[in-house]
Amino acid sequence: MNSLIKLALMLMISSMAIFAQSGIIKGKVTDRNTNEPVVGATVEVFKHNISTTTDENGNYILKTVPEGFVDVYVSASGYKKNRKRYINMDKGETEVVDFELNNNLLGNYPRVLGSAEFDPLMSNNLNEKVHKELELIKELDEEKYRNLSSDINIRIPALRRGAYSSITSFTEEMETNYKIRELELRTERLALEYKKSKKDKAKTKQELTKVLKQLFELKEEVKSTEVKNLEEELAKLKEALKIRSKNKDKIIDNRLEELIGAGEYLDW
């Protein structure tokens, strides 16, 4: 009996020592564009077999993280993976590490068996019109289809981080991106039809010209919106610069106080 008690005490002391030498990483995982919590995301400490999932508020907690530098990875369905590297863990310390995930507009494509290539037609996440254009291109030219499939994520215009006042504006830009991608694929398909067809070339060329004009106008609209947003941001920066210039001495004095330890931190 005494031996069992001693063994239990040794195990308890050993467990306490392990916890004392380890730390905790906790934080929140959110959608970069909407700032909404990502539920059910997998958070793991690389090469240490420590993982967990986010709760309904996007929060997570990793316990018994070893001392030293560690890498933490986050993955979730419909999102691109993210990671934070070289997080310095001290004994018994708690580190707060938040993650923002980029939404993958076209989802994660299944891979073709025996191949390293993606096949977007096997995905249920594709926009219907984009799917149709890809299908037609595949019928016309298998090699062209494979080339376009491997480039499909790169060719989609990036969504602007932090530029959305509401879910509606985010959805509108996402729909515009899909429309641009659809028109780009349609130009590729019409070009293939023009090259392969021995008749109606004039009609195909006319339709191709019409689609190119639509694509140009849509891209110009996107560029105009980007310029407008940049001009608004520039106006804000100019106004902030005027305020800083007027308060130069105060800002310098506050920074001086912060540096010598007599004041609060100032993000100047």
Describe this structure in words.
- By secondary structure, the protein is α/β, with parallel strands linked by helices.
- The chain contains six helices and eight strands.
- Strands 1, 4, 7 and 8 form a four-stranded mixed beta sheet that branches.
- A hairpin with a 4-residue loop joins strand 2 and strand 3.
- Helix 2 crosses helix 3, helix 2 runs parallel beside helix 4 and helix 4 packs antiparallel against helix 5.
- The N and C termini lie far apart (66 Å).
- The relative contact order is 0.08.
- About 14% of the residues have low confidence.
Tag the structure with descriptive keywords.
268 residues, alpha/beta, 4-stranded mixed sheet, 4-stranded antiparallel sheet, 6 helices, 8 strands
Question: Quick gist of this model?
Answer:
By secondary structure, this protein is of the alpha/beta class. It has 6 helices and 8 strands, in the order H-E-E-E-E-E-E-E-E-H-H-H-H-H.
Helix proportion: 40-55%
Structural category is alpha/beta
Q: What characterizes the major β-sheet?
A: 4 strands, mixed
What gap, in angstroms, lies between the N and C termini? Answer: 66 Å
N to C succession of SSEs: HEEEEEEEEHHHHH
Please tally the helical runs, counting DSSP H or I stretches of 4 or more residues.
6
* Radius of gyration (Å): 27 Å
Number of strands: 8
Mean pLDDT: 77
State the assembly state of the protein chains.
Answer: single chain
| Shape assignment | flat
Please indicate the percent range of residues in DSSP E strands (runs of 2 or more). Answer: 15-25%
What are the segments in which pLDDT stays under 50 over at least 5 consecutive residues? 13-20, 105-117, 152-167
